[in-house]
Amino acid sequence: MTKEVVDDILLKTGDLPWVPMVEGIDFRLLRTCDRTGAWTVIFRCQAGSCFPLHRHLGAGEYLVIKGRMVYRAGEAVTGDYGYEPLDAIHELTSFPEYTELYFTNFGPVLFLDEEGEIVSVLDHQAVREIYETTQDNQNG
Questions:
Q1: What is the mean pLDDT of the chain?
Q2: Kind and range of the H or E element at 128?
Q3: CB–CB of 17/29 below 8 Å?
Q4: Structure pTM?
């Protein structure tokens, strides 16, 4: 059996484009992995923006680069780290001020309506498709 070689990754994140995700929230794509389903982004969240009701089908980790985020676990501010376990449900994740967030999720996130029905799925493939579609549209 041959061992697959994985190349190092070095990104100049300041050179990466911001891509719209939901109203008031953009992201810079850092990495997706077809083997593990993990995806890593930097979110840029405008004051007053939020992520609606969602459920994590993979654990997630975040680091608040700047700003403030409020959700089920409490209030996270600049420099705070958080872990969101598998099957965590967040009714609302809000950003009362401009916030940047480094975020990795190890699987899909399901966005739900008030009845708990799936509205959309955000996983490594969807994040990559949003990014690539936006880049294709901007490049002609």
A1: 93
A2: helix 124-138
A3: no
A4: 0.90
